[in-house]
Design a protein that fits this description.
Helix content: 25-40%
CATH class of the largest domain: Alpha Beta
Largest sheet: 7 strands, mixed
CATH topology of the largest domain: Trna Endonuclease, Chain: A, domain 1
Number of strands: 18
Distance between the termini: 51 Å
Shape: globular
Number of domains: 2
Length: about 350
């Protein structure tokens, strides 16, 4: 891992130092969880697993995926990986009630559901809560075998089912006078880990049927009636929300759900995703920039120049859509808060069978 240098007329190499204890690092993460990810919310700290150990930190992603975070401490890296995989079995069994209890202890009595809405600007989908999990190891160094394990568990091209993707966040501390500077780097792009989760990998699930699920976040940021009228889906406000759009290719069939409402349409993708500043809409035979046409949603206009925060669009030829008032939902339907995913849950097959009786033009 490269060392840090201070730039000026004469570059100066900053010496690497060690934190007094890794408890200090844990305290730093608690004070500013963005060190891990701007897209996650912390749920718990030093939580007893009942397996003879404690989880260092527990977090949650916007789609309800639980993130098990283990600090290296004095254990060897391989021991950390093995311990984290062991703890993942305990995390898998956490119910919504237990998650709320863990968060209440961590937050000194705050409501998990209320704080989830504040943090992610959306309600938690109970069908998505703890349906997937991922592991993050926080360490200053990693041995070769542990790195091979992490890369193997994240390789979506290998035709073998693996339940839990694992990633590593490397950190280093450098001295700059009386200050200490923290540097971090991911072993694997966190978006790749998210795509792994969104693609489905559970050994207990069914093979993917080739049809995509889309979560369309209707609200101030985007408008479903405009998406119906002009033929698109979109997502933005952070790479976590927009990057899964890249799973889609021309010709793919998508089934669209508005969280909290139900399924509102089925269509065929007509191109790859593109940022708001490049996406055009056909109006009266002319291609016009989308942001000049769309008026009923914000579509993150103020952030259109930021590739991480911008809204991204995918063109769609709709087979059939309905207004939000006619959204279709049943108990047991598949739900997920990733913008796009490739469901392998058994309930996806049931959901598709029912949707095809409702949207007959599919």
């Amino acid at each position: 891992m490269p060392s840090s240098m201070q730039f000026g007329k004469q570059p100066e190499r900053l010496p690497e130092v060690s934190l007094e204890t890794e408890q200090v690092l844990e305290d730093i993460i608690i004070s500013d969880p963005r060190i891990l990810s701007e897209e996650w919310m912390l749920l718990g700290r030093q939580e007893e697993t009942g397996y003879g150990g404690r989880i260092d930190l527990l977090g949650i992603a916007p789609d309800g995926t639980l993130v098990l975070i283990e600090l290296k401490r004095s254990r060897t890296p391989r021991d950390v990986v093995a311990q984290a995989l062991d703890y993942a079995g305990w995390v898998e069994g956490l119910t919504a009630e237990r998650i709320s209890e863990i968060y209440s202890r961590f937050s000194k009595g705050q409501s998990f559901r209320a704080d989830f809405i504040k943090h992610f600007n959306q309600e938690i989908d109970d069908d998505s809560l703890n349906q997937n999990r991922q592991i993050v190891i926080v360490a200053s160094r990693l041995d070769d075998s542990s790195e091979r394990i992490a890369r193997y568990l994240n390789n979506r091209d290998i035709p073998i089912n693996r339940d839990i993707p694992i990633n590593v966040l490397f950190f280093q501390v450098f001295a700059h006078g009386t200050e200490q500077l923290l540097s971090r780097a991911w072993l694997i792009d966190p978006i790749e880990t998210q795509l792994h989760v969104a693609s489905g990998s559970s050994s207990t699930n069914e093979p993917w049927n080739g049809e995509f699920y889309v979560s369309f976040g209707h609200g101030p940021s985007r408008n479903w009636e405009e998406a119906r009228r002009y033929g698109f889906i979109s997502a933005g406000g952070g790479s976590w929300y927009s990057k899964t759009l890249k799973l889609l290719n021309s010709g793919d069939r998508i089934w669209v759900k508005i969280p909290g409402k139900g399924y509102v349409g089925v269509g065929e993708v007509r191109g790859v995703c593109s940022p708001a500043g490049e996406f055009t809409i056909m109006v009266d035979g002319k291609e016009i920039p989308a942001l000049d046409v769309l008026k009923d949603g914000d579509y993150h206009r103020a952030e259109s120049a930021d590739p991480e925060r911008a809204e991204y669009f995918v063109p769609v030829s709709w087979a059939e859509t309905v207004p939000i008032a006619d959204a279709y939902s049943e108990t047991g339907f598949f739900g997920n808060q990733n913008s796009v995913c490739k469901p392998t849950a058994a309930k996806w097959r049931h959901t598709i069978e029912r949707l095809k009786t409702r949207f007959r033009k599919w």
